[in-house]
Automatic annotation (TrEMBL):
It comes from Vreelandella piezotolerans. Belongs to the inorganic carbon transporter (TC 9.A.2) DabA family. It is found in: Cell membrane. Its main location: membrane. The keyword Transport applies. Forms a complex with DabB. Part of an energy-coupled inorganic carbon pump. This is Probable inorganic carbon transporter subunit DabA. PANTHER family: INORGANIC CARBON TRANSPORTER SUBUNIT DABA-RELATED (PTHR38344:SF1), UPF0753 PROTEIN AQ_863 (PTHR38344). Pfam families: DabA.
């Protein structure tokens, strides 16, 4: 195959973003591989290749305009800042009579059958990857493409001529692609568009195959996305072979024809821009309001994950007790660890999806102190494997039915889901050789965390991870902590607290410019986002002089939980009036097997604020903002800010764009209806109804309640408290950051002397406050 076709194939496959397994589920930007292109250009291509533009329909913006959610001032500012070739009058007229969408590209199978016919590929993927609990492996050792080719050749549903044609192609995937490409003789640009279009027909499985390259590089040659791309191209080649002469001429013509103009997309993007400015103007007004003064030195500081659900709780916690201050940091607390005690088959990563764990939690030898827990989990895994053995259909239910029946009854009578357990870590070891972590590594981890927290000043520091509770919920991991690989953050908090309390670490920190108060102690805790209860992991080593501060924190946390539940209840339809009854009702949502929406998760996320808590103290941000500490005076070189813009900002953007994509393009990037879900492979993902297509993204119930949309589809607004030159230097140094900003995948703003102002290559533009 020529290099031009190989490059085209790579561009097409790179356009598909990865997904993670259900038990490690994290939010993913589905356009990550296209961030080097302007978002409007990607939208135009997606509309042509999949019939799915990346904006809401015109009716949505018309309703927002008529309801006052978008004002004339928003439209005028969007026109000025975006350079759109419209007037306000023409934009309003567009909403009244939007032009008909362009006809999307059609595969040969759509021409033949009226539908894309790619369920055949999805069926093979479901069969190939449904090796229950084997985690990315295929017991037969056969690669995906030969597995599919062999299956189709013996599938009597397909015509004999098709099966015979398939036999003429090579068994090696790239050789087959080379033969197909030579037969078509398309331009490399057309070949790229065709390949990407076909992969979008099996987008869920393409995303899964892409994920294999991210998670298990050794499995990529046998089951990665190039295997699926070969299947898609060969399948299309078989379809083209069945077209009539006229149909074939039309099929070739559509791929060689240039792309249509952006005119029909620009108007909707202008309305989307104005819609986002409406939120930014409201945010500017809130941030411009005077901040409530903080106590000079709080008795307790509680560091929460930046997750938007923590914003409400932090606000109410500070209101409950003025001696308690809060901080925001990524919920894995800078601990790149994997939990090796979760089971015998694999360690569970507890890091953001873009990172790899450098250390593992557990015992140095599974046959020593941790042997009992290890054996217990091995027995559970044996039962799980037995459930999926061929003969279990005839034997397992009859022999164990009574025992399982009692469990079903007991679980059905439960009034709340089990509280997540988090045992104290027994040790921290290197992942590559199992050696205990060295003292200098401990100090480096502690220094990094304390720097991100802005050098805490309270004698008692509580590190609060978060978790959620729900039964019968394949997407449970999506409600826990995206900063912890789909796991609760309690374990990371316990690891971090143990490091900060280490005598060797505390003695070394002053030599690195970090002075802790005396006495100083760190505790770990977990915030349940379902019930807004906080559980503190007590430690007998804590000095008695800090007991009163701990009691004050726990009392304030109880009051904050009640206030937060009261604020959240209306959106969940919880109408209980009493605080106790309201708590019981929310806890019951997690135990109810039929509840498709235990909580709203990160719905309505819209902003990331990198600033001292003093800039947002006492300001109601409605649970829509990720809040991370950043102290510009402590970071003259900008290295801390650069790390924040390369890590938490990217994670927040992934979360934001997954919610956006699941809302604006639900058929392609949404999870579908939870009521119709079936789990594939135990951990691979979900399918909807009898369709073999893998559904990715957020289910409908995570975004809307019936016909009412609960998530505003907005691109992330990043607010930074830092000098212009420092921010611009980071944009200049970091191409990934520059691509996201310059191509409008997110909006970058700063807290300037005169309010909020937004970055553009032409300069910083002020964002006016709420409704002048």
């Amino acid at each position: 195959m020529t290099s031009s076709y190989l490059d085209a194939l790579k561009r097409a496959t790179d356009a598909i973003a990865p997904v993670w397994p259900l038990d490690q589920w994290i939010a993913v930007n589905p356009w990550w591989g296209l961030k080097h292109q302007p978002i409007e250009q990607v939208s135009q291509a997606l509309s042509r290749r999949a019939g799915q533009p990346m904006t809401m329909p015109a009716e949505f913006y018309r309703h927002a305009w008529e309801a006052g959610r978008i004002t004339s001032q928003d439209v005028q500012q969007a026109l000025r800042q975006g350079g759109y070739a419209y007037s306000e009058q023409s934009l309003v007229g567009y909403l009244a009579s939007p032009p008909k969408a362009a006809t999307p590209l059609r595969s040969a199978w759509e021409v033949l059958k009226g539908h894309d016919g790619f369920d055949a590929l999805a069926e093979s993927c479901a069969s190939y990857f449904d090796q229950h609990q084997q985690r990315w492996s295929n017991p037969t050792g056969e690669s995906l493409y030969p597995f599919w080719k062999h299956t189709v050749q013996h599938d009597l549903r397909w015509p004999k001529t098709l099966r015979q044609s398939l036999r003429t192609l090579p068994d090696e995937p790239m050789a087959a692609v080379e033969q197909v490409a030579a037969d078509w003789a398309l331009t490399p640009e057309a070949f790229e568009a065709l390949t990407h279009t076909l992969l979008l027909r099996v987008n869920g499985w393409a995303s899964w195959c892409q994920g294999i390259g991210w998670h298990s590089a050794d499995q990529q040659p046998s089951a990665g996305i190039h295997q699926l791309a070969a299947m898609a191209l060969v399948w299309e080649w078989l379809g083209v072979d069945q077209l009539t002469t006229v149909q074939r001429r039309e099929w070739f013509s559509q791929w060689q024809t240039g792309q249509s103009t952006l005119d029909q997309h620009e108007a909707l993007w202008c309305w989307q821009h104005a819609y986002e400015l409406g939120y930014q103007r409201a945010l500017a007004s809130v941030l411009a309001a005077p901040s409530e003064p903080l106590p000079h030195v709080p008795k307790v500081q509680a560091a929460f994950c930046i997750d938007v659900r923590s914003e409400r709780f932090r606000r109410h916690l500070e209101n409950a007790d003025a001696s308690v201050g809060t901080l925001g940091v990524a919920g894995f607390f800078g601990m790149p660890v994997a939990d090796a005690d979760t089971g015998p088959e694999r360690a569970q990563p507890r890091v953001p999806g873009l990172l790899k764990p450098a250390y593992r939690i557990g015992t140095p030898d599974p046959h020593a102190q941790g042997i009992q827990r290890y054996q217990q989990e091995s027995q559970r895994q044996s039962v799980r494997h037995a459930k999926y053995a061929p003969l279990s259909t005839f034997t397992l239910v009859e022999t164990t039915g009574i025992a399982w029946g009692w469990k079903l009854i007991k679980d059905s009578l439960r009034k709340q889901a089990p509280v997540p357990q988090c045992e104290a870590p027994e040790g921290l070891f290197h992942t590559y050789d199992g050696e205990p972590i060295a003292g200098h590594d401990k100090v480096a981890l502690a220094k990094n965390l304390l720097t991100l927290l802005g050098h805490p000043s309270a004698s008692l520091l509580v590190l609060v991870g978060h978790d959620s509770q729900s039964d019968n919920n394949p997407h449970h991991a999506g409600l826990t902590c995206g900063a912890c690989g789909g796991q609760g953050g309690g374990m990371n908090a316990r690891v971090a607290a143990a490091l900060l309390n280490d005598t060797e670490v505390q003695q070394a920190l002053p030599q690195m410019g970090i002075v802790l108060p005396s006495p100083f102690f760190a505790l770990a805790a977990t915030h349940c986002t379902l019930t807004d209860r906080v559980h503190v992991y007590h430690d007998e080593q804590m000095p008695e002089t800090l007991e009163s501060a701990l009691r004050a924190f726990e009392t304030a946390a109880q009051r904050a939980g009640a206030a937060t539940r009261l604020e959240r209840a209306p959106a969940l339809g919880v109408e209980k009036q009493g605080a106790t009854e309201r708590l019981e009702s929310m806890a019951m949502r997690g135990a109810d097997w039929s509840q498709p929406r235990p909580e709203w998760g990160l719905v309505n996320n819209a902003a990331l604020i990198l600033a001292p808590r003093a800039r947002t103290q006492g300001k109601a941000l409605d649970g829509r903002a990720f809040l991370h500490e950043y102290y510009p005076e402590q970071d003259p070189e900008g290295s801390v800010l650069e790390g924040l813009m390369m890590a938490p900002m990217l994670v927040a953007s992934w979360i934001n764009l997954q919610y956006y994509a699941s809302t604006v393009v639900p058929d392609l990037y949404g999870g579908g209806n939870k009521l119709l879900h079936s789990v594939v492979g135990g951990h691979v993902g979900v399918i909807e109804g009898n369709s073999p297509q893998l559904r990715i993204g957020l289910p409908e119930q995570s975004l809307r309640d019936g016909d009412t949309l609960h998530h505003e589809p907005l691109r992330l607004t990043v607010v930074v408290d830092a000098p212009k030159a420092r921010i611009e230097a980071i944009i200049e140094r970091q191409p990934v950051v520059a691509e996201l900003i310059h191509h409008r995948w997110l909006w970058l703003t700063r807290l300037g002397e005169n309010g909020l102002e937004r970055y553009s290559p032409q300069g910083w533009q002020p964002i006016a406050g709420e409704r002048e």
